[in-house]
Amino acid sequence: MAFQCQRDCYMQEFVTSVVACSPAELKQEINGKKEIIKGFNVKLQDTILFPEGGGQPDDHGLIGDVPVLRVTRNGAEAVHFVGSVLEVGREVQLKVDWERRFDHMQQHSGQHLITALADSMFGYKTTSWELGRQRSTIELDTPSLKPAQVEALEAAVNEKIRANIPVTVQLLSLDDPALEKVRSRGLPDDPAGPIRIIDIEGVDANMCCGTHVSNLSHLQVIKLLGTEKGKKNKTNLIFLVGFRVLKYVERSYSIERSLVSLLKTGPDDHVDAVDKIQKTVKALQKCNLNLLRDMAVLVAQNFKLNPERDLNVYWTFFDQKVVELGPRVLEMLEGKGAGKNGRFQGKVNSMARRGEVEALLLEHCRSEP
């Protein structure tokens, strides 16, 4: 069964009726914490809200004035999770979150185009893909992708976008011989109804349940950001499509202007400026460490000359014998630590036996020549 969102991906509002409504729970991550939300699973006569599938996240939207928090597929039915009970048989109006939906359409159709041309140009098959919140990834069956190949692929996909190529949907039966010519990674375990084919005219025909643009020109632009090493000798190709490219440029420009203000240099000099700052900081840290070591030696020498003065809570000694006393000190003060290269440091949990520790250290200092 095809849902209305699959028959017309551009429909933003739709009137339907409630078929079923039952109590349910939804596990969600809110502010980094997993929480269980109580609500209701609602089934409708039809829907324009896409249930997650084919690598594409679900739609958000409204049933009347009730927010839809999740949409999943159960066989041939879409299940909408909402926070309020809805009366069975009631006629309702659906409204899709269009910004989210169109973004998913752009990324998904863009993935089909990139996948098709990566295969036809270089013979690299797509083994999986992920539509992320900010950027998306295609896993290619190749250990590496050269920068020149990325550049050529980006030029090719954007040329197809400018060519104004139509994208259509075909519905084929399971026994249709035409299925043999369709690109696919296999049917789902529970196929329902005819098989849906996304056809980019003259470029690609691919089995898919997701929502797509009706013309490649609606993708606007594709930017291939680069590659990362994938699993099992594969390569992840990172990409942005459409409005995500515009948002990326806007964010990048904002960061660039902030760096100009902070570094007092033009954008072309930012890398050199940061490199210079890092080297300066490293040199200052080294100098600071040397000063601290010199101070520690002076403190230790001063203590040896004045052994009767009060000890502070923190001791620092550059002396091998004192380092050897470290484990005894930590045992007495219920702490943990370690010694290395004539130094010992640790963290203690109890100062109840401080007097005994002071006596131990005083005895050691007095015994030193």
UniProtKB/TrEMBL annotation:
Its cofactor is Zn(2+). SMART domains: tRNA_SAD (SM00863). GO terms for molecular function: alanine-tRNA ligase activity; ATP binding; metal ion binding; nucleic acid binding; Ser-tRNA(Ala) deacylase activity. GO terms for biological process: alanyl-tRNA aminoacylation. It is found in: Cytoplasm. Residues 1-251 form the Alanyl-transfer RNA synthetases family profile domain. Gene3D superfamilies: 2.40.30.130, Threonyl-trna Synthetase, Chain A, domain 2 (3.30.980.10). The keyword Nucleus does not apply. GO terms for cellular component: cytoplasm. Belongs to the class-II aminoacyl-tRNA synthetase family. Alax-L subfamily. This is Alanyl-transfer RNA synthetases family profile domain-containing protein. The lineage of its organism: Eukaryota, Metazoa, Chordata, Craniata, Vertebrata.
